[in-house]
Amino acid sequence: MDERERLTDGARRLGLELAPAAVLRLLRLIEELERWNRAYSLTALRGREALITHHLLDSLAIHADLRGPSVADVGTGAGFPGLPLAIARPELAFTLIDSNQKKIRFVAHAQRTLALANVTPLHARVESLALAAPFATVTARAFAALPELLAQVSPLCGPGTRLLAMKGRLPRAELAGIGQAWAVVEVRELQVPGLDAVRHLLVLERRDR
Known about the structure:
The protein has about 210 residues and is of the alpha/beta class. It is built from 7 helices and 7 strands; from the N terminus they run αααβαβαββαβαββ.
């Protein structure tokens, strides 16, 4: 099975039917990441197979949980999960936020190279942002402990904002400390094709503000 088939099949097992053009864009993203990685060490992962599994498919595992029209990916790093999700869900507008200038430079490069009109890179500390309107969805992959994450993303959220927190093992103690402003909608294990590691998704919704 070649890379296109592997990615297409993996996405299908996640309930996502990728168009051929989207598959090519996703693989081009990995090519660019590999190229930049040699100079800037954007990720500790090495090898295309690992990048496809740990970055592309892992990111796409939450595609069905997104709500639009606007999505903020906080602590996006080199653009994950934001860039793969933006490729898979072109009808949604994504703002990818990180305080690391080197990584946001790569996100901006990928946005231009892949012609992703629905992606806005933003170099900033998320807790210091002041925005005119809240996002419909906020995503975060291994960004911070849940109570800290909720406090930091507060400026991005309004009533009904959905937070998708991607975790490894289920953080039961973190869930106990979320306070009254957020409701837990769902907690589930993510089954990422080819990834032999525990993954969980915490779905929360903002109650007030």
